[in-house]
Amino acid sequence: MVRPIMKELLFLGQKSEEATEQDRQVIADLRDTLAAHRESCVGMAANMIGSRKRIIIVSLGFADLVMVNPVIIQKSQPYETEESCLSLTGVRKTGRFRKIKVRYQDEAFRKHTQEYEGYIAQIIQHECDHLEGVII
């Protein structure tokens, strides 16, 4: 189901809780909501659709990657950039890392550890910030 985009800063500023297999509907709703906003959005965190669960989705261009309970365990090559967000108005400056390593579970709750770089790494960092209540 396509969910409305959360814009309430008090809600977005709260840390998310660990997701469990009972949160599969949140994953489905994230997929649907990202699809509905594909022209203006490349990633979403569950709190952007009103659920404080540690789930993100990232568009890889050819497919969408769901990460459940993601944790960035390694970062390198810091840089400054500007980002926007469906939950916020305008563009804001932020610091990111060109290369990251992430530990997460997929939609079937299988564990993975994967390295990402460039734009995909930037999107993952943005969405993981959402899970920590960090607003750019």
Structure characterization notes:
- By secondary structure, the chain is of the alpha+beta class.
- Helices cover 23% and strands 38% of the residues.
- The protein has a single domain (9-131), classed as Peptide deformylase (Peptide Deformylase, Alpha-Beta Complex).
- It has helices at residues 9-12, 24-36, 118-131, and strands spanning 43-45, 55-59, 64-84, 91-105, 111-117.
- The longest helix has 14 residues, at 118-131.
- It starts with 8 loop residues before the first helix and ends in a 5-residue tail after the last helix.
- The mean pLDDT is 96.
Strand content: 35-45%
The overall strand count is 5
The spatial strand order of the largest sheet comes to 1-2-3-4-5
The biggest beta sheet reads: 5 strands, antiparallel
Could you report the average pLDDT, rounded to the nearest whole number?
96
CATH superfamily: Peptide deformylase
Number of domains: 1
The percentage helix is: 10-25%
Detail the topology: elements first, then pairings.
Blueprint: H1 9-12, H2 24-36, E1 43-45, E2 55-59, E3 64-84, E4 91-105, E5 111-117, H3 118-131
Antiparallel strand pairs: 1-2, 2-3, 3-4, 4-5
Write out key terms for the chains shown.
136 residues; alpha+beta; Peptide Deformylase; 5-stranded antiparallel β-sheet; 3 helices; 5 strands; globular
